[in-house]
């Protein structure tokens, strides 16, 4: 769980605890209804917000697990044993690696570039890499700029256009 999420959860728990204690003390001391309602609304809001965050984190973890599972399944697919296919595959891999180096991509940009070529969305790449989608968007833009293309389609086409 990212540090930011942990901090927000801790703060919400603190708000819930303090608000709950204050509400209990106010009930015993005869505070006004308006004040009790305000405290109750604060406690309810913090509780709902905490629940929403925890549910979002659970959904995000499930998406990451599904993506990793799909990638593992794709990696385990039986590829043709045909020597020509294997040679072509290795040459394409070497071409991509050499081109990434000639474009002077950083290691992160290379990883993002490969995942883009594999067809993953920016959101999926962000989930897999544990970074913000905005970061992946910036890295993808840097890859496209260094490659001299205008976007994902031009990037993929750069590698396969001449083979079709």
Automatic annotation (TrEMBL):
Membrane spanning residue stretches: 36-55
Question: In its keyword annotation, does this UniProt entry include Membrane?
Answer: yes
Gene Ontology molecular functions: DNA binding
Report keywords, A-Z.
DNA-binding, Membrane, Transmembrane, Transmembrane helix
List, alphabetically, the SUPFAM superfamilies matched. C-terminal effector domain of the bipartite response regulators
Q: Does the keyword Membrane apply?
A: yes
Where the record annotates domain HTH luxR-type, the positions are 102-159
Q: What is this protein called?
A: DNA-binding response regulator
Task: Name the species this protein comes from.
Answer: Shewanella jiangmenensis
């Amino acid at each position: 769980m990212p540090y930011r999420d942990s901090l927000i959860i801790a703060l919400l728990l603190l708000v819930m605890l303090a608000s709950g204690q204050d509400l209990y003390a106010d009930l015993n001391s005869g505070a006004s209804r308006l004040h009790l309602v305000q405290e109750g609304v604060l406690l309810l809001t913090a509780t709902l917000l905490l629940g929403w965050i925890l549910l979002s984190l659970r959904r995000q973890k499930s998406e990451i697990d599904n993506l990793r599972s799909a990638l593992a399944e794709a990696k385990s697919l039986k590829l043709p044993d045909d020597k020509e296919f294997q040679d072509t595959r290795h040459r394409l891999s070497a071409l991509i690696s050499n081109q990434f180096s000639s474009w002077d991509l950083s290691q992160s940009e290379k990883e993002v570039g490969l995942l883009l070529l594999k067809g993953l969305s920016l959101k999926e790449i962000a989930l897999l890499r544990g970074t913000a989608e905005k970061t992946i968007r910036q890295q993808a833009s840097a890859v496209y700029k260094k490659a001299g293309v205008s976007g994902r389609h031009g990037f993929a086409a750069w590698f396969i256009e001449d083979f079709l």
